[in-house]
Amino acid sequence: MEVLMEGIILLSEGNQSIIPTFILLRFSEYPELQVPFFLIFLSTYRITVVGNLGMIIIIKISSKLHMIMYFFLSHFSFVDFCFSTVVTPKLLQNLIVEDRTISFSGCTVQFCFAHLFGVAETFVLAAMAYDHFVAVCSPLLYAPAMSPKRCVLLVAGSYSWGVVCSMTLTYFLLALSYCKSSTINNFICDHSVIVSVSCSDPYVSQMLCSIIAIFNEVSSLVIILMSYIFLFITVMRMPSTSARWKTFSTCASHLTPISIFHGTIHFLYCIPNPKTSWLTVKVTSVFYTIVIPMLNPLIYSLRNKEVKNTFTKLVFTKSLCHAT
After folding, report:
1. Strand 21-24 relative to strand 101-103: parallel, antiparallel, unpaired?
2. Torsional class of 169: left (φ above 0), alpha (ψ -120 to 50), beta (otherwise)
3. CA 23, 28, 34, 38 torsion: positive or negative?
4. pLDDT digits over 193-224, tens only?
5. C-alpha span between 210 and 261 (Å, rounded)
6. Residue extents of the structural domains in the chain
7. Distance between CA atoms of residues 116 and 96, nearest Å
8. 21 burial level (CB within 10 Å; 0-12, 13-18, 19+)
9. In what order do the strands lie in the sheet with 101-103?
10. C-alpha–C-alpha distance, residues 18 and 108, integer Å
11. Span 19-26, mean pLDDT?
12. Cβ within 8 Å of residue 100, ≥6 positions away
C-alpha cells in the first residue's frame, strides 16, 4: 500500500494543489431512518464478524475440518470479514455523526481494499467450484489434483490478482482531477461514484473498470459453470438416489452464495445503465457489501453437517466447563 500512498502524495503535488474532500451522502434523504438504519447495520455487522471469524476458528481448531474444502471455506470467510470491515464501520460512523466527510486518501484506500477483497472472493468461489468438481468427477485423482501446494497457489493467486486489479484501477483514479469538495451520492467509495465527481474525462478509467469487471466475471463464471455442468452429469449417472441427493445438498450450499454474489456484481458492474437510480445503486451496494458477507457463513453453517456438529460440541464443551 506504500505505492498507493505515494500516488496520493504525488497527486497533491502535481495536477492538484489541494487534496479534495468527499462528502458521503449515505441515506441522508431519509433523516428519520438514520437511527433504525444504524441499528440494523450494526446488528448485521456483528453477525458478519461473529459468523465469519467463528467459521475460521471452528475450521482451525477442529481436526475433522482440516480438509481442502474447509481450507477454501476459511479463506472465503476471511475475505467476507475483511470486505465488510472495509466498508461498514465508516457507514455506521456517518449514520450517527453530522460530519460525513471522507478524505481523498481515505476514499481511495477504501476503494482499493474493497476491490481487492471483492476480486479475491470472486476467484476463491471459482476455486471452491473446481474443488467440488474434482472431488465428485475424479475422486481417484483428487489427492494429486488438489494437493496442499496447489490449493495454496490457487488462494494466493486470487489475492494477488485482486491486488493487481485494485492497484491498476486506483492508479487511474489518482490520475483524474477532482474539485476541492465533491458530494458522493452513496455510502461507499465505489469506482462509479468516484469518477462521477471527477472534473476530468473519466472515459479511460470507466472503460478499464468495465473490462476488468467483465473479464473477472466471465473467467470465474466459466470455471464455475463448466465445473458444475460436468459435476451434474456425473451425479445423474450415480446409481444411488441417496448419494445423488447428498451431493446436490453439498453443492447447493456453494451455489447459493455464488448466485447471490455474481448476480449483484453483474447488476452493478457488467451492465452499466445510466437510467439506474442512485437509490437502486445504494440498495444493491448494501446487499453486496453488508448483507452477503453476513449470509455466507449462515448458509454454510446451516447446510453443513460437519460444521454444525463441531459447533455443537464446542458449545456443549464450553457449557460443561462453566458448569464445573
Report:
1. antiparallel
2. alpha
3. negative
4. 888 888 888 889 989 988 998 899 899 999 99
5. 17
6. 2-323
7. 28
8. middle
9. 101-103, 21-24, 181-184
10. 15
11. 75
12. 23, 24, 25, 26, 28, 94
Pick the closest to residue 307 from 296, 318, 293 (CA basis). 296
Residue range 103-121, pLDDT digits in tens: 888 999 999 999 999 999 9
On whether the CB atoms of residues 117 and 82 are closer than 8 A, the answer is: yes
Query: Among residues 8, 28, 53, which one has the least CA distance to residue 294?
Result: 53
Burial of 262 (0-12, 13-18, 19+ CB in 10 A): middle
Mean pLDDT of 11-28: 61
The C-alpha atoms of residue 233 and residue 226 are separated, in whole angstroms, by 11
Angle (CA) 260 284 278, round 5° = 160
Q: Which residues, listed in sequence order, are joined to residue 183 by a DSSP beta bridge? A: 23
pTM for the whole structure: 0.85
Using alpha carbons, select from 188, 194, 193, 160 the residue that is nearest to residue 175: 194
CA-CA distance, 80 to 268, in Å (whole number)?
Answer: 18
Name which CATH class applies to 2-323. Answer: mainly alpha
Amino acid identity for residue 192 in this structure: S
242-286 residue pLDDT tens: 777 777 776 777 777 788 888 777 776 655 555 556 667 777 778
